[in-house]
Amino acid sequence: MKKILSSAAALALVAGFGGAASAEPFNGPFVGVQAGWNKDDLGTPSTPLGDLQVGRSQDAFVGGVFAGYDYKIAPRIVIGAEGGVNFGADDSIVRTSGTSRLTIDPKRSLDLTARAGYLVTDNTLIYGRAGYTNVRARTTLTDATGTRSASSNRDGWLIGGGAERAVAQNISTRLEYRYSDLSEGDGKFDRHQILLGVAYRF
């Protein structure tokens, strides 16, 4: 976590001294990469093997790619749409009880979101984000009866917000927080993320 916060500070410093990408840095298509901190917090989520008591959380590194389109609808107002895919590292959640072992391993996440922002300067956008997210996870349970395993897709919603700044010709950087609810009913499956991103704007 300290390394992530240090990276965020470095990104903010670079953004503060960066120049504008163009006269319209937040108007048009873009692609990018992102990485950062991910925390999954589980209670008793529903799984293909039943409603299983987990009661654990797990911090992990996450990284991925995204693409989207921004449109300036007013001199200071930007709206946009974005899709992305992310993968975690060392993000399996494990609970042991006696001779039983339960593992929930998130494989990948997809998201499709909209965002709306305000240009505090010509090159700096603050924004909010909301939309759909989906996580592919594999559940494995080992107990006295043997080992059972199954994968499933979990649908959910996410909200978040952040700041993005044009730092060079066709390049912008951003820092963003996201919260996702993947519970699919009463069972708790929450996700928190802090993501650093770099985008190329066409």
From TrEMBL:
Transmembrane annotation, as ranges: none
Stored InterPro entries: Beta-barrel_OMP, OM_autotransptr_brl_dom, OMP-like, OMP/PagP_B-barrel
Signal peptide: 1-23
PANTHER family referenced in this protein's UniProt entry, alphabetically: BLL7405 PROTEIN (PTHR34001)
Name recorded for this polypeptide: Outer membrane protein beta-barrel domain-containing protein
Outer membrane protein beta-barrel domain residues: 9-202
Family assignment from sequence similarity: Belongs to the Omp25/RopB family.
One Pfam family, short name: OMP_b-brl
Key words, A-Z: Membrane, Signal
Gene3D superfamilies found in the cross-reference section: 2.40.160.20
SUPFAM superfamilies the UniProt entry points to: OMPA-like
GO cellular component terms, semicolon-separated: outer membrane
Locations listed in the record: Membrane
